Amino acid sequence: MAALSKSIPHNCYEIGHTWHPRCAAAVVHVSRSALAESLRIYGTLYLIAAILRKRKLDYYLYKLLPEILQSTSFLTANGTLYIACFCILRKILGKFYIWSPGFGAALPASYMAILIERKSRRGLLTIYMANQATETLFRMAVARGTITPLRHGEVLLFCITAALFMFFFRCKDGLKGFTYSALKFIVGKEEIPTHSFSPEAAFSKTDRKIKPCEKVSQPVNILTLTKKLMDKVCKHGPRHRCCKHYGDNCISYCIKGFIRMFSIGYLIQCCLRIPSTFRHLFTQPSRLLSLFYNKENFQLGAFLGSFVSIYKGTSCFLRWMRNLDDELHALVAGCLAGISMMFYKSTTISMYLASKLVETIYFKGIEAGKVPYFPHADSIIYAISTSICFQAAVMEVQNLRPSYWKFLLRLTKGRFALMNRKALDVFGTEASKYFKDFTPKLDPRYTVVPPELPLELS
Asked: Residue 15 has what DSSP assignment?
């Protein structure tokens, strides 16, 4: 509590908008840059989403532009209201405390901004920012020595998360919406959730009747022989009666799953690298090869491919061992499949899925009547999470996720880096650790503390 009561007498110009002494002008500058960046982000995002979802012409004519403008207004308001609350809070308090330039200013700004956004998107934004805030708090705790990081902790978290997600996937009404569709796409329709059943109650589809086809004379070539050989290998082999992959035996079923998801992971990573590669295509043509032979491409492919093959292989093995298909198998299979993250370690993925899992369990608790429903909980969580991230962005950038810091710089056209963090070093958070060479040029006519005097806590 003593640390929270410490303060410095500087005004908002000396700490925050060091590029201009007037608060109104600073708010306008941030608003303009946030508006331009928000339009670019959401214009591209909504257009690509509409194309992928194969929206009809009516959507492009009547809904696309309003949705873009509403989301743009939300993000612009978040940035504009932050710098406005930054100045207002300083005028109310008369000084800066350790919490006021970051958390204190961002809390009301974020809450007012999220109310502008569509309700259907608030949940997604809340999950994203809760993930950011949780990782930021973890980094802060590690930096202070409060927590010792666990080796391969992100892999362990992913194993637990994957086990529970796959269990809910196999349970009746366990998952709905996008999460269910995504898991169905990843592991395949053969693992569509069913109740526990024994071989005696298995589907009668095990022996499908295939209509005889008329023999058509085809030229024999290598491709035809290879296809026939693969068909024989896939169809003639061990397959338990509870397994629903009727066209494949258990071994080929796992191999095909690996190849399919490895290819998808490889292509996803290639697509993500296309913009950065083509920017340097004419100056460095050799970088084009790195688009296809980059290490990360194979790592993501190996991660997704091994996840699916391990999950499918474990599920088949348990069906053979127990002579039963049970949703409890998904707990074991999902946990073992989570080890695949060793190929592509990502704290971001683990934290996001863990946050999504907590949300799923919470809503299931509401449906069961065991957990109370809190109105506007998503807006409140978003505001608190964003405030935590802004607190780190102001007081200890080194503990903020680098990608989010870059996003804040783009949103403000670099103005977030112009804060006078050397004046904030007195709070003991090493605010200027990454800004040792930067000292803002302040107009002495608008400053409270002469720039040349040493800083002291009041």
From this structure: H
